[in-house]
Every structure is written in structure tokens, then in C-alpha cells.
Design a protein that fits this description.
Blueprint lengths: L3 H12 L2 H9 L3 E6 L4 E4 L1 H7 L3 H4 L10 H16 L4 E2 L6 E4 L5 E10 L7 E8 L1 H44 L5 H33 L5 E2 L2 H11 L1 H7 L2 E3 L8 E2 L1 H18 L5 E9 L2 E7 L7 H6 L4 H6 L6 H13 L3 E6 L5 E8 L2
Parallel strand pairs: 8-10
Antiparallel strand pairs: 1-2, 1-6, 3-5, 4-5, 5-6, 7-9, 10-11, 11-13, 12-13
Helix pairs in contact: 6-7, 7-13, 8-10, 10-13
Length: 364
């Protein structure tokens, strides 16, 4: 049974030491002092803010009031063991610790314990830190590393395929002199196309690498002009596939960074040519949606399955492995650009219904 008189006496003893009280309240960390029974003796203002309790609500209560139910029994054992051999140490080393606020919400914490004996009481002081931001940063870093690994796999696959093609056609020319002029011209054309693909991938790699570290200022963009530039860049691909692009007379004006938005259109239209029908028919457009402008690219291809739609943005390399034309690199660039300029992208698609990529930018 909790002896509240002992708890209150210990609390008063600490409060009467003005230097200690001033120190506790000056700390940026949340602080809780407990006795050897695991009952709360004192908390500082930061602890009140972090957990949502007033000191009067918890003094004399078991420390469990700050813990999720799943931690309470194990924590009680830790406290007993600590007071048998008190020393400064992190609490729950190697474990994920969580605190529970007054409103019932739980959050990750770091806790370190130190002995804090008064003249008459055996106490411990715990320093509590909310590490939600740290955990989120670690999760983001882990995700970035996973994305980087997947991206490297995609790029390596693309480059390796192109290099094999160049080497193979080059060997034909070197090892066999019997080819006619027309045949040699065709082989050289294949080498040229492969070299052009490799050059495009390398350029996009440089863009991809620069996006994260480059800060840009958003301004109104001229989408019609951007589309003109993209069509020039894709001229060879458009002619080779006899592709048709339907362009509206006017696009709505949005905020963006023209060079990057051009890359979005370039990659999405390029994919529409690759995966469109025979011949590809690609329709472009825009519309207002609240404080955003939605731009879209619709093709007449086979479309994507529900499974394909689930992974195309989160794991484009998996989809890439299923299709030799390549999918991951371009969409990785598109996704990274839109994340950087506070845009977003979605996909409407179904088997044999074509695909419609929709990306949003802020309205002017």
C-alpha cells in the first residue's frame, strides 16, 4: 500500500531546496522523481507539458500512470532491480520505450535514471525525452536508403541492358565483314539508339541527384511552352512510334519550377509512348481543383492491374522488373520532383483501359 505521507514528505523536502527546484524547472528535459516503491514524488513543468498532467494529479501515484499497460509489469521489475543496485544508466537499454499521456496517446521516449537520495529518502530521478522526431527521422532515412537501393538496381538494370546491346551489335561489325551496306547501317542505327538511351539515363541521373540538394523558388509556369520543348526532345521517339499527342489550346497556370516541371512532362509522356497503344494516342489536359491545378496525361495502352497501381510509386523497380521497357527511373524522378515542390501524383488505370497520370501543382 502506498504511504502518501512518505511521498509528500519527500516532495516537500526537495521543494524546500530552492536550488534543486530551480535546476529541475530550468531543464529542457522532462524530469520525474520516484521513491523506491515506484511512486511519483515530483515532476517538473516540462513533464507536465509532455504528459498532460498537473503535478497534483500524479504525486503519490504509481509510475504506471505514465506507461502503456504493456510496459507496466516489466517496468515494475526494472524499478525494483534499479534500487537494489542504483547507478546512472539508460532505462530499457536495447528496448523501445513508450510513454502514455493523460489523453491515452502513446509516444516513443528515451529515459535515463540516476540515484537521487535525500537525507531521509531513497529516490531516483528519471530524465524523459520525447524521441518522436528522432524515430521519424530514422524511419525516413531507412526508407531513403531502401529507395536508393531500389533505384540503384533499376538504373544498373537499364544501363546493363543498353551496354549489352551496344557490345553485341559492335561485335557483329567487328567479327563479320560480310554484312551489306544496308545491314551495317541498320546495326549502326541500333548502336546509335542504345547510345542515346544511355545518354538520357545519365542526364536523368544527374537531375535525380541534384533535386534533393537544390532549393528553388516557385513561380508561374508556361505549360504550353514546356510541352513544346518536351515534344522537341521526344521527336525521335514520337516519330518512331507514330505517336499522336492531343494538346489543349490552353493550360491553367500553376506555380512550379519550369526546368523540373519539364522533366515531369518529359518522363510521363515518354512512358505514355512506351506503354500506349499501337500507335500511341496521348491526351494532355488540366483542370482547377481547389487551390491546386491538376495536370493529366492519358494514354490508350493496356493499363495496369490493381497490384501494379499499388507499387508503381512506392516500388517502381518491382514493376520495372516485370517489363523490359523500363519504368522505375522516370517515375522516381517525377515523384522526387513533386515531393520537393509540394506537389503530388496519382494514377487512374485498369486492365485494357489505358492509364491516366494526374499530378498537382499549386494554383497561381
Amino acid at each position: 500500500m502506498v504511504n502518501n505521507n512518505e511521498v509528500f514528505n519527500a516532495a516537500n523536502s526537495i521543494k524546500n531546496n530552492l536550488a534543486v527546484t530551480a535546476l529541475l524547472e530550468s531543464l529542457s528535459e522532462a524530469v520525474i522523481i520516484i521513491n523506491d516503491s515506484g511512486n511519483v514524488v515530483l515532476i517538473n513543468n516540462r513533464m507536465e507539458e509532455l504528459f498532460g498532467y498537473n503535478a497534483d494529479e500524479v504525486i503519490g501515484k504509481p509510475l504506471d500512470v505514465f506507461l502503456p499497460a504493456s510496459f507496466q509489469k516489466r517496468h515494475e521489475e526494472h524499478i525494483l532491480n534499479y534500487f537494489e543496485k542504483p547507478h546512472k544508466r539508460p532505462m530499457g537499454k536495447g528496448l523501445e520505450l513508450y510513454g502514455r499521456r493523460k489523453d491515452g496517446t502513446e509516444f516513443p521516449v528515451d529515459v535515463s535514471l540516476s540515484a537521487f537520495h535525500s537525507e531521509t529518502h531513497k529516490l531516483a530521478i528519471a530524465f524523459v525525452m520525447d524521441i518522436t522526431a528522432r524515430i521519424q527521422a530514422q524511419d525516413e532515412l531507412r526508407q531513403q536508403n531502401e529507395d536508393l537501393d531500389a533505384f540503384a538496381h533499376t538504373v544498373a538494370h537499364d544501363l546493363n541492358s543498353i551496354i549489352n546491346s551496344i557490345v553485341g551489335f559492335s561485335q557483329l561489325l567487328v567479327e563479320d565483314n560480310s554484312y551489306s551496306k544496308e545491314e551495317r547501317s541498320e546495326i549502326l542505327s541500333h548502336i546509335f539508339k542504345s547510345s542515346h538511351k544511355m545518354s538520357t539515363i545519365i542526364k536523368e541521373l544527374l537531375i535525380f541527384a541534384n533535386i534533393r540538394k537544390t532549393e528553388v523558388e516557385l513561380s508561374p509556369i508556361d505549360t504550353s511552352k514546356i510541352i513544346e520543348e518536351v515534344i522537341i526532345r521526344l521527336g525521335f521517339q514520337l516519330n518512331e512510334n507514330n505517336a499522336k499527342i492531343i494538346i489543349p489550346k490552353k493550360f491553367h497556370t500553376a506555380l512550379g519550377y519550369s526546368a523540373w516541371v519539364e522533366e515531369i512532362w518529359y518522363n510521363l509522356i515518354s512512358n505514355a509512348i512506351k506503354y500506349g497503344g499501337t500507335p500511341p494516342v496521348i491526351e494532355l489536359g488540366s483542370e482547377v481543383a481547389g487551390d491546386s491545378i491538376l495536370f493529366w496525361i492519358k494514354d490508350n495502352g493496356a493499363g495496369l492491374s490493381d497490384e501494379g497501381k499499388k507499387i508503381i510509386f512506392t516500388s517502381p523497380e518491382k514493376l520495372h522488373q516485370q517489363n523490359s521497357k523500363g519504368f522505375g527511373l522516370g517515375l522516381s524522378i517525377v515523384k522526387r520532383i513533386l515531393d520537393k515542390i509540394n506537389g503530388s501524383i496519382t494514377l487512374e488505370s485498369g486492365a485494357n483501359t489505358g492509364s491516366k497520370f494526374i499530378f498537382s501543382l499549386k494554383k497561381k
